[in-house]
């Protein structure tokens, strides 16, 4: 079981995701450089936070053209789990793997703080270890995290149970309080909060582990029990 | 080429004697390009010509210091084969002209100082000072500058991917029209990863990497030269524009290129980019550097050698590689999509030789530029002082109202509005971030963490630069000790007015001597820093405002709480009630916010006692004997007590004091050497205090949701925590929403 973490020029939470998977959860993780045409046989992909390509034009707009994204699309179409965190979520919407868009926060300011997030749907490889309605404390850190989509899309997301995470106290004006969504096949999730920043007791919360360990468990072919020590309940 | 007239010399801010020295060093008249080069290298900013003779008084050594002043940043050993590099820099003037870019490029510059040494930046802090936000005349401008500076810092740091973990933020009339933006950065590396800015190895290629050179940031003074205005009538921006994305790429590429082993020396292009990097690298190595400007990547056409040498375009570095291995370096930079061009060669003749299309435009001994800069023993008298020695008679009209006003004042209120715009968590090392007495960053590679704090106090220093500076060092070390850290080293930023005025020069001298005395006493050697002079507003100097950044080390562990956690816990005042009289209240926040005046003396400091308080609180926090610990600083005991109540559960306290002091002094004086703790084991706290020979008074217990303070039988304050917390939390938003009546 190996997690691939894509590194775009300007990614800056790549190492944090790597550390959470490899040091906090003790699973294999490796970096995948943006101009790589192959994912090198990984079992799950994380698109980390940061400012890919400087977020020029729009957040995530240039990253979608990078060679690695073609491979990520194929991986997703084949059913492989792909988790986009923060800038990774923005890349997924720009690449058309998820509907809607992320725009400037309602108050026009970057916001970095820990917010309450509710698990709306545990029916995904990323949330399966959580309970429906469970509250997590997760950090957000973004200037463009306000999720928008047209009314029909929002209704579809709701009716298909594809809103996976919702803010308890909405920090950015996202419609319907959306913090994370799934694609129709439920194997691609984008979320603005940072689970990798809540993966170590020293960082004040380990609530993010429920997301990351769900991903790992879902991606493990073997049914061997997880070597997870500090799971949040 | 036009003749060098006295006007041209004056426009380059060189004095006639300085010009004569240039002529005698060269043995001839300089060319205009050479004059430009001298003007930057001999500027106050690069040469420290007014301050250098005094900076020599600072202690710079300890067993941990691997690199003291003189390099891009100081380096301290923190054990386990790991070291930290850290430094502070000012970007005051650019931040006034263009707040967003001025502050952003301030962050960019200090980050390059850190990674040019091979260290990966892991934390940034900012000390920022502005005019008052609610001033009827200047408030709207101050708000614009403040908001611009904060978003500039956020923009650069967030995108680069370094957490901004703390700092200080002050509003004072003195900084109207002259904001102070001091940025501190800290990086980490292994001992064998340290790089220096030295151009060693005759024949080695000199390589330019990073952004292209444009006309931005060319020194304003140089615009006035006759030839220059003929060539470019257009006004060029004096403030550089930063690109944090490019800097992030430059960071990763430089660190990766360093790992190839093909790099022998590297330096960032800071002030006067190409000029300072070439001559300083040559001077440090005792070599010469010859460059061909036609090879320099350029953003604009038709740039003259003068413009290229003086350009301050951001995100550029100069490095020297081993001859024969340059391709390894080029490959790394190509991978990151960055320019890397061989522009010259290391020579044996000690000269900086600048050619453009083969023609020599400058030929100056490196030493003349870097080491022969004039040093002035500027005359000084007594420090400028406008404040009276005695203040008005004080009788509070309501102590609770005073406390509320202090909590809602700009300096004391919550700075959440500021730090929520900063990514303070990226890299997942922030164990204690904004809002704590000091920030703590863990080093993942070892079991060590680094604590850091920035402190300044213009009011104290305006009253007494020497004592004010000592108090500031004491407070900074106290902040670290409260977090359980042992202070180990200092960087400093000296922000003052015009040193050519003897009473301002006296402030500088007194302050530097105070800094030297305190840093020696607290065993925190100074490993570098920055001097920013000529900070004046319409002829009125700013308060003398030295700022120190002190770092400390501790074992990696969860931090002590800075707020009360549970009701029913004894509250102990470590260090005692302190001494104060009315004269010593004049520099305090009570003088500023309630009396609206400045007078008297800064608080009295007993450094011996202070140091004993540090060791006591460090022992208590490290041993987990206390449940919470918070330094008493701005606003005194009552403000510190209220701040201890502003945790998530808003636990209050019931306090009874026993003092003969008038209540205004008792509650609000800012006597140092004091820490407020709550504990489940009061007898252990008292024992540790006794062992360290300091006072410790149990002054009450925590309780749910109210702050009650009385002295003997007199009730002083009784307020719901929620009410105080609301004022404190939202004050800054309210100040920013101030509308000035038309």
Q: What would a concise description of this structure say?
A:
Chain A contains 5 helices and 11 strands; from the N terminus they run βαββαβαββββαβββα.
- Describe the sheet with the most strands of chain B: 7 strands, mixed
Lateral strand order in the biggest sheet of chain A: 2-1-3-4-11-10-9-6-7
Give the count of helical stretches of chain A.
5
What is the top-level CATH class of chain A? Alpha Beta
Apparent shape of chain B: globular
- The structure class of chain B reads alpha+beta
CATH topology of chain A: Rossmann fold
Q: Provide the gyration radius of chain A in Å.
A: 16 Å
Oligomer: heterodimer
Most extensive interface: A-B, 32 and 31 residues
Number of contiguous helices of chain B: 25
User: How widely separated are the two ends of chain B?
Assistant: 54 Å
As laid out across the biggest beta sheet of chain B, the strand order is 8-10-7-11-9-12-13
Q: Radius of gyration of chain B over alpha carbons?
A: 26 Å
Low-confidence stretches of chain A: 222-233
Distance between the termini of chain A: 24 Å
Q: What is the CATH architecture descriptor of chain A?
A: 3-Layer(aba) Sandwich
Report mean pLDDT of chain A, rounded to a whole number.
Answer: 93
Count the E strands of chain A.
11
Total beta strand runs of chain B = 28
User: Helix coverage percent of residues of chain A?
Assistant: 10-25%
């Amino acid at each position: 079981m190996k997690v691939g973490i894509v590194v775009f020029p300007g990614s800056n939470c790549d190492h944090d995701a790597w550390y959470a998977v490899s040091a906090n959860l003790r699973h294999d993780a490796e970096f995948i450089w943006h101009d790589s045409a192959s994912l090198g046989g990984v079992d799950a992909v994380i698109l980390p936070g940061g400012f890919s390509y400087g977020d020029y034009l729009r957040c995530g707009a240039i990253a979608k053209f990078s060679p690695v994204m073609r491979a990520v699309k194929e991986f997703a179409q084949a059913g492989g789990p792909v988790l986009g965190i923060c800038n990774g979520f923005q890349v997924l919407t720009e690449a058309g793997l998820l509907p809607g868009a992320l725009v400037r926060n309602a108050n026009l300011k970057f916001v970095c703080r820990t917010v309450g997030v509710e698990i709306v749907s545990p029916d995904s490889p990323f949330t399966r270890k959580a309970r429906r309605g469970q509250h997590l404390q997760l950090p957000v850190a973004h200037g463009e995290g306000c999720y928008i989509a047209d009314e029909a899309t929002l209704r579809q997301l709701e009716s298909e149970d594809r809103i996976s995470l919702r803010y308890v106290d909405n920090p950015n004006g996202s419609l319907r309080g959306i913090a994370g969504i799934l694609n129709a096949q439920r194997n691609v999730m984008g979320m603005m909060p940072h689970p990798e920043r809540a993966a170590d007791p020293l960082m004040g919360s380990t609530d993010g582990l429920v997301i990351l360990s769900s991903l790992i468990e879902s991606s493990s072919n073997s049914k061997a029990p997880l070597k997870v020590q500090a799971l949040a309940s | 080429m036009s003749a060098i007239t006295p006007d041209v010399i004056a426009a380059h801010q060189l004095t006639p004697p300085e010009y004569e020295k240039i002529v005698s060093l060269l043995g001839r008249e300089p060319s205009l390009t050479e004059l430009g080069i001298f003007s930057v290298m001999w500027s106050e900013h690069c040469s420290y010509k007014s301050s250098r003779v005094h900076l020599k008084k600072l202690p710079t050594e300890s067993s941990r210091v691997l690199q003291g002043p003189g390099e891009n940043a100081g380096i301290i050993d923190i054990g386990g084969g790991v070291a930290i590099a850290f430094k502070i820099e000012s970007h005051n003037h650019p931040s006034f002209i263009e707040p967003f870019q001025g502050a952003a490029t301030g962050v960019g510059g200090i980050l390059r100082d850190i990674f040019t040494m091979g260290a990966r930046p892991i934390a940034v802090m900012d000390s920022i000072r502005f005019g008052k936000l609610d001033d009827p005349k200047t408030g709207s401008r101050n708000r614009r500058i403040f908001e611009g500076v904060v978003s500039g810092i956020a923009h650069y740091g967030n995108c680069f991917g370094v957490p901004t973990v703390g700092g200080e933020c002050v509003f004072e009339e003195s900084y109207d029209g002259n904001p102070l933006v001091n940025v501190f950065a800290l990086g980490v590396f292994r001992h064998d990863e340290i790089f220096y800015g030295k151009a060693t190895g005759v024949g080695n290629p000199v390589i330019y990497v990073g952004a292209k050179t444009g006309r931005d940031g060319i020194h304003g003074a140089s615009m006035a030269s006759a030839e220059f205005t003929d060539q470019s009538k257009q006004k060029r921006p004096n403030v550089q524009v930063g690109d944090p994305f490019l800097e992030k790429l430059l960071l990763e590429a430089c660190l990766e290129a360093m790992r190839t082993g093909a790099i022998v020396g590297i330096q960032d292009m800071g002030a006067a980019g190409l000029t300072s990097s070439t001559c300083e690298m040559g001077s440090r190595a005792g070599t010469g550097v010859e460059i061909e400007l036609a090879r320099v990547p350029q953003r604009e056409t038709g740039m003259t050698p003068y413009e290229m040498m003086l350009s301050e375009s951001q995100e550029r570095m100069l490095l020297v590689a081993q001859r024969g291995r340059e391709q390894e370096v080029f490959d790394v930079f190509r991978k990151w999509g960055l320019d890397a061009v061989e522009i010259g060669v290391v020579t044996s003749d000690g000269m900086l030789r600048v050619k453009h299309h083969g023609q020599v435009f400058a030929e100056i001994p490196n030493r003349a530029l870097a080491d022969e800069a004039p040093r002035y023993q500027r005359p000084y008298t007594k420090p400028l002082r406008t404040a009276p020695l005695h203040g008005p008679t004080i009788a509070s009209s309501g102590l609770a109202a005073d406390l509320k006003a202090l909590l809602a004042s700009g300096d004391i209120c919550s700075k959440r509005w500021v730090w929520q715009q900063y990514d303070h968590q990226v890299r997942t090392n922030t164990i204690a971030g904004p809002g704590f007495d000091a920030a703590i960053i863990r080093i993942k590679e070892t079991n060590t963490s680094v604590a850091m704090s920035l402190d300044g106090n213009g009011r104290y220093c305006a009253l007494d630069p020497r004592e004010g500076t000592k108090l500031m060092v004491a407070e900074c070390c106290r902040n670290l000790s409260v977090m359980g850290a042992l202070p180990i080293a200092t960087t400093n930023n000296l922000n003052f007015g015009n040193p050519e005025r003897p009473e301002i020069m006296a402030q500088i001298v007194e302050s530097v001597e105070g800094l030297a005395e305190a840093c020696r006493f607290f065993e925190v050697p100074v490993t570098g820093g920055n001097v920013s002079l000529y900070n004046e507003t319409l002829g009125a100097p700013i308060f003398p405002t030295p700022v120190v950044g002190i770092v400390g080390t501790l074992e990696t562990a969860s931090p002590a709480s800075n707020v009360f956690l549970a009701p029913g816990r004894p509250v102990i005042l470590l260090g005692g009630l302190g001494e104060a009289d009315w004269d010593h209240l004049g520099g305090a926040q009570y003088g500023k916010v309630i009396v609206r005046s400045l007078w008297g003396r800064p608080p009295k400091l007993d450094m011996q006692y202070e140091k004993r308080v540090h060791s006591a609180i460090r022992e208590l926090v490290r041993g987990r004997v206390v449940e919470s610990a918070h330094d008493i600083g701005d606003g005194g005991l009552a403000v510190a007590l209220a701040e201890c109540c502003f945790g998530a559960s808003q636990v209050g306290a019931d306090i009874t004091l026993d003092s003969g002091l008038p209540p205004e002094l008792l509650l609000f004086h800012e006597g140092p050497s004091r820490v407020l703790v709550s504990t489940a084991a009061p007898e252990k706290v008292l024992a540790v205090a006794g062992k360290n020979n300091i006072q410790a008074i149990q002054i009450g217990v925590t309780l749910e949701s109210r702050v009650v303070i009385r002295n003997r039988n007199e009730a002083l304050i009784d307020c719901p925590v929620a009410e105080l917390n609301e004022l404190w939390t939202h004050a800054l938003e309210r100040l920013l929403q101030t509308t000035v009546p038309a």
